[in-house]
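Service request form, structural biology core

Requester: graduate student, group of Dr. S.
Request type: structure prediction, single chain
Budget code: on file
Notes: please return the result as structure tokens.

Sequence provided:
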Amino acid sequence: MTARFDAIGMVTADMAATLAFYRLLGLDIPADADGRPHVEVSLPGGMRMLWDTEETVRSFAPGFQPPTGEGRIGLAFRCDGPADVDATYAKLTGAGYEGALAPWDADWGQRYAQVHDPDGNGVDLYAPLG
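Core staff response, request fulfilled:
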């Protein structure tokens, strides 16, 4: 049997704030999930994204200490076009999330930007330039 990549799991300090961020990115997360200790959503293509609160992880992994600092995980969301990168960045930063890199035209042919989710994880927004 070969293992296959199936899910992206994240540990969050504030479930409601984290889910609000990913809802703004278009993930279909039930409204009643904010108070749950564990949340899973199916992504296009069959992958899943999972979130657990720090308290939940500590309950099954005594001694768990969440990583510190930024850049613990990086995610990338493809946008429909360059203008959508700008609009999505503006929507997220307008909602109070930290903009790490304002939109720019990258040398590799993409419009690119980065925001941080509530736990400091980098979330890249990109679209081909042409």
